[in-house]
Amino acid sequence: MFLWATQGQIPNDPASLAAGKTAYEVHCAFCHGRGDDGFAANLVSPNLPHAPSDNSLFNIIKNGIPGSDMPASLGLSDADGWKIAAFVRSLGRSAPQSVPGDPTKGAASFKGKCAGCHMVNGAGGRNGPDLSDIGAKRSPSNLKTSILEPNASLVPGWSVAKVSMADGTTVSGVKLNEDQFAIMIREGNGKIHNIDKSKTKNIDRSAKSSMPTYQGRIQDAELTDLISYLFSLRGGM
Ligand code: HEC
Ligand code: HEC
Q1: pTM of whole model > 0.85?
Q2: Which numbered ligand comes closest to the C-alpha of 76?
Q3: Are 109 and 204 in contact (CB under 8 A)?
């Protein structure tokens, strides 16, 4: 069950903010780093997609985000939760981290290498997640991992499977759904197959991401430009 918080308020006195910073270091820094250099979501942003209001931010801190790796903070008092919320909002007010690289060049290489699979602001393909607000959700180091090691940072809902049918044919693509009797696969060309499991021989889930790795296939300067472009994408354009 969800423990809905009572309405509360973000404190704004310096002592609460300092206490919030200390509690953040204990409960959050392990995944979020200093806010923008952890492997989890970037918190140095005035618009957190999951936390548009202060109450939603407090609820995330207390209860986590169900279905994601963002955990509930067990044993955290409401008062400390609000102090952490105050600290997180103060991160959002500070200037966004400036990243090296040229976002204009990054946009050009994105168009050539990545837009076939990824949509940004309505343009691009559908074989990967929409990246229109990726800069608000991921830190620069997290973006780098996504590009160099796609299997190390899988986005929920994009796992792939290769189904070998009893008749010798195979179907592979993104797994949309699965239950005891059937598995639904979307191939790269968009075609959706709802497969009766009794007609399959084997389901291989060992390949994780359908995104190719760019490790060793991309120059450092181009990677830096790409990251500066992705980090500039904040949605709402
Ligand atoms: C075990 C790792 C982990 C810990 C510990 C953790 N988080 Fe997270 N957090 C995540 C991940 C992963 C996400 C991204 C979830 C998603 O979008 O799928 C996330 C998302 C968030 C978001 C939503 C950001 C957005 O884009 O809307 C906020 C806010 C947040 N965390 C704050 C905190 C705070 C504050 C703490 C400490 C109380 C904390 N987190 C502890 C892993 C963690
Ligand atoms: C063949 C299709 C394909 C190509 C080409 C591709 N991607 Fe991806 N990308 C995916 C898929 C599928 C995922 C989700 C699975 C995963 O996390 O690896 C993904 C995930 C990502 C993510 C993580 C998104 C998130 O929400 O955390 C980023 C960032 C990303 N891609 C950037 C790029 C960049 C930059 C390029 C070009 C250099 C690129 N991709 C090329 C298919 C592709």
Answers
A1: no
A2: 1
A3: no
